[in-house]
Amino acid sequence: MTDELHFRIPLISPYLTRANEHIRWNLKRALNADKALRDRVQGKVVLITGASSGIGARVAGELTDAGATVLLVARSQDKLEALATTLCERGGKAYALPGNIANMEDCDRVCEQALHDHGRVDILINNAGRSIRRSIKFSFERFHDFERTMQLNYFGAIRMAMNLLPSMLERNEGHIINVSTVGVQANPARFSAYLGSKWALEGWTWAAANEFAHTGVRFSTLNYPLVRTPMIAPTRIYDYTPAMSPQKAVEWMLDIVTTQNKRKVTPTGLFALSMYYLLPKTAESVVNLGYQTVYEQPPENYQSHHTKSQNSEENQEEPSEPAAANYAPHPQTSTHKKTGRTGRNSLQKPTNNITLFRKHSQKKAAPNRENPNRKHEHFPVKWSLNQR
Q1: Is 276 a residue of the active site?
Q2: Which carries the bigger pLDDT value, residue 145 or residue 229?
Q3: Where do the domains of the chain lie, and which CATH numbers do they carry?
């Protein structure tokens, strides 16, 4: 490398081509969505991750019906093969490529197999994802939640893209679609792990789109709202929350495939994003109000830091007798004439404004039954210093 700064003449014509394509395909989609989809994907190779169920499986069916060759990727081999068989029986072309996108070696293997068997991948749909709903205060000892979501939602997605981008650039044609969430605009509470991974994915997508805008490779993002899919089934509160239907979610995906638009997001998402930029503290307060209103069941064996602090204080051993160094008698303290010992009850008020108090009144001496030679034994007394 050299420290010299070099310039080159940028290409302007690709921007004009892209603008023309944008207008043409959006117009075709508006006039006849089905025909526009067929014209876009006929004979194309489409790879879909998370294709065994939900949005991925439905989109795969629509794309095979439109004439695309669909490569199905997910962990469940049985489900993938069953889906591929069903799609082939309908006259489509579908192939099962089992693999775990959270495993980087599986990502490499799947991409290599796809390129070897089909020669190219024209459209990559990063649909696989993992969502975790948990407050940060309940996640202090669950850092693996953040690692798992990043591994699948971010690292797995861009690993697939990085494997397929070279062949797309070589052909100067390709489309990468990354599935995100409207939470990136609305920033709901309890989704720090999930939103962190989706923010990372969107950041990479924006940077890649800026770098390859003068080429024939396009990048798109879908900011889905809550969709009624198997992924949200374990969270019971979603049963009472408005959610997009799976069919509507499929239509969103097909629209992005056809038009290659940059983003698909709800008006609610755009409003929430504008609130965060224009009135950030107000938006934060609104979200926090909802966070406080909805109760979240703590995990098993969870102890708040306040409870831990109380337990720690209770478990600390307190000395039964004050230490000599801390509770030395004042020089003016009187002594017994016969014994010369310092009297306990003769303590004077110290001159350094530190007063010695008893927490409990001293009880009468009790007889020592174990040792008859000792007639009396004092009960322990707790002492404390109070700084005025």
Answers
A1: no
A2: 145
A3: 13-293 (3.40.50.720), 319-336+346-388 (no CATH)
